Every structure is written in C-alpha cells, then in structure tokens.
Amino acid sequence: MAQPAAWDHPEPLALDTAPVPEYGTGSLADLLPTLAAGMAVPGLTAAIPELTPADRNCVFLIDGLGWEQLKAHPDEAPFMTSLLASSRGGTGRPLTTGYPATTATSLASVGTGLPPGAHGLPGYTVRNPDTGELMNQLRWQPWTKPQVWQPYPTVFQLADQAGVHAAQVSSPVFQNTPLTKVALSGGTFHGRAAGEERVDLAAEQLAGGDRSLVYTYYAEVDGAGHRYGVDSDTWRGQLMYVDRLVQRLAEQLPPNSALYVTADHGMVDISFDEQHRIDFDEDWELRAGVALLGGEGRARHVYAVPGAAGDVLTCWREVLGEQFWVASRDEAIAAGWFGPPDRFDGRVYERLGDVIAAARDDVLIIASEREPKESAMVGNHGSMTPAEQLVPLLEVRS
After folding, report:
1. 314 contact partners, CB below 8 Å, separation of at least 6
2. Distance from first CA to last CA of the chain, Å, rounded?
3. String of b and e for 88-99 (b: at least 16 CB within 10 Å)?
4. pLDDT tens, 181-239?
5. Coil, helix or strand for 85?
6. Torsion over CA: 329, 330, 333, 335 (sign)
7. What angle do CA 304, 366, 303 make, to 5 degrees?
8. Which position among 42, 59, 197, 289 has the lowest Cβ density within 10 Å, counted as fewest Cβ atoms?
9. Pairing of strands 165-170, 212-218
10. What is the pTM of this model?
11. What does the alpha-carbon distance between residue 85 and residue 178 come to, in Å, rounded to a whole number?
C-alpha cells in the first residue's frame, strides 16, 4: 500500500521556530562592551544592564562548557554551581553564544563585541569569496590577511586606547595566532602553560591598573568533550579541575573587581549509528549540485555550483527538513541567525553558504572522506539548541 504524499515529503521545520540568539540583549557579543562601557570606554554601550559596573573586570572563558552541562554536574563543579545563586555573593544566568555556536565565531564575538554577521567569522570553515577555497577560521588555513578578513577593532584595543589596563592571559601557543590578533588583541598578552599560573597571573594583571580589563582562557574541557563526550570520566575530570581554577582566581580578586565566568559554546554527544550521522560523502542526494561543504556537522554552510542554489535548497529541505532548520543565505540573514539584519556587513555575504543547515535533533552531517577527524568526534556543537547555545555567565565580586 502506497504511503500518503505527506509521508514521502514531510513538512520541513519552520524557520521561525529556530531559537535565534539574543543579540543585543544577552549574547556573548554583549559582554565585553557592557563591561568596558562601565569603565567609561567611549563608543560602547551596556547591553546587559543588570551587570553592575566595576573598576576591574576579568573574563574567564572555559571552552566548551555549556550552561546545561554545568547545571547537570553540580558534584563536579561545586564552586561554579554555588555561583548560580546569589547567596554566595555571585549571580548566574545564561547567555546565548551566537550562530554558529563554535569557537572561532564565538571568540570573535567576545573580543570584538560584534555579531558574526558583522565581524565576519561566521563558521568553522567558510568560503573565501576571493579565492573560492574553504577557509578554516580556527586554524586560519589557507592563510589570509587577518586585518582584511576582520577589520574592526577589538574591545581590548578600544579599552587600551582609553587608558584601561588591558591584558590577555592564555596558553603561549595562542600568542601570535591570526585568530588572537583579530579577536582578542589589545594591551598585552601573557603566555602561561599551567592553569594555576594562568589564573594567578590574571589576578595580578587585574590589580595592574585602577581600571583593568583582563581575559583568560582554558581549552581542555572542550578537547575532552570532543574526544570522549560530555558524559565521560575524562570530561568530568576536566570540569573538576577548571572548577578549582575558577575558585582559585575568585579568591585572589583585588578590590573593586568583578570576575565573569563564561564559555564559547555547549556540546552534545552524538551516537555513531548511521541514523545520527548522515555521511555527505556517501549521500548522492545531498552532494548533487554542491561545490563545497563548509561549517561543521551541526551547522553546515553549503555552497552550490552556479545556478544550482535553488535545487540544493529544495533537496536539503526534503532530505533533512524534519531534523534541521534549512535556510537560504538570504533567509538566514533576514531571520537574524548571524545578528540583526541591519548590522550585517556586506563583505560577509558570500562567505555564507547558499544553503545553511542548523541541526535541531541529535544528528550530524559528517563528511568521512574530506573531514575524517571531525567526523570521528563524540561531542559536537554548532547549532541553536539550548545545549549548544546557552553558556554560563557567572559573577563574583570583591
């Protein structure tokens, strides 16, 4: 007996059901401008008004620690969990990362105070319109001039120009990377390998000026999640360790300081069966008319061959539309996925895919041949689900 037409062609997810990030009121891009505005840095606006100004501000960014993952592990993170309530002198709330929820995009949003459609790092890999090649914006490969790719000043640069003591304390390997230059430069960079040395120096730098803006970073929670998953003993051990680092830094805050703990994205574990991992390299329907596949498993940029964009959009919606929000480039911009449409920078337009697919369900579009390492990851992120989008904003004041 033949199935009805609705079975053969399921109704795709409506784009207005996608939980668009809270740009301008509660996204990562709003944090540093709010803090810097409270220190009287010109040209910046306090977009998160509930944050009380402080003379000295430190942002501790934990790569890969989502709001939902933190709340699900109170035993592994007792100190950060205590900051979820105001009874310990702190406050906690979630922020949205911005789309896609991935490190290069989020760090650029943090450092520039701009949404992805303005700063121009709108994915893990995106097409460079000048060369036609995919560019990995985390590793900056193939290389392109950083200040051409992202021309706006960082909040740290604006703060430094305004006389604020600005500093970044991170692993030495990040000191001269293009991503650091376009997203987090300004003031001085201090490289420290050990986590304890890093937070100790961050506290020293915070005390280094009457007005200070300091950033520090820890990456290994994210690495453990990718390799072993957010339900693994290795991931839990990393969470326990970084919780102690946060407490160590909080206990060293100089007077008139505020510490803000946040992250660049959350993470979800995805099963390795074929129902949850759709292999682009083995799916002729998804490959039809596609010149380049960018982004990552849960947040894809799809670049069509000339003249095929409409057909690719139709096909991807028919094949994936019950599990992914599938939009054309113009639809995604208009829906505010990459920030308010009126703040979208035209130079970014052709970096976006002709078709953009954001996962709703626990599913990936892998590419086993062209992306073997990424296709083998347990923990993944990128889309607009709460597990990926929501990150903590925890506050400690002295």
Report:
1. none
2. 71
3. eebbbebbbbbb
4. 999 999 999 999 999 999 999 999 999 999 999 999 999 999 999 999 998 999 999 99
5. coil
6. negative
7. 10
8. 42
9. parallel
10. 0.95
11. 38
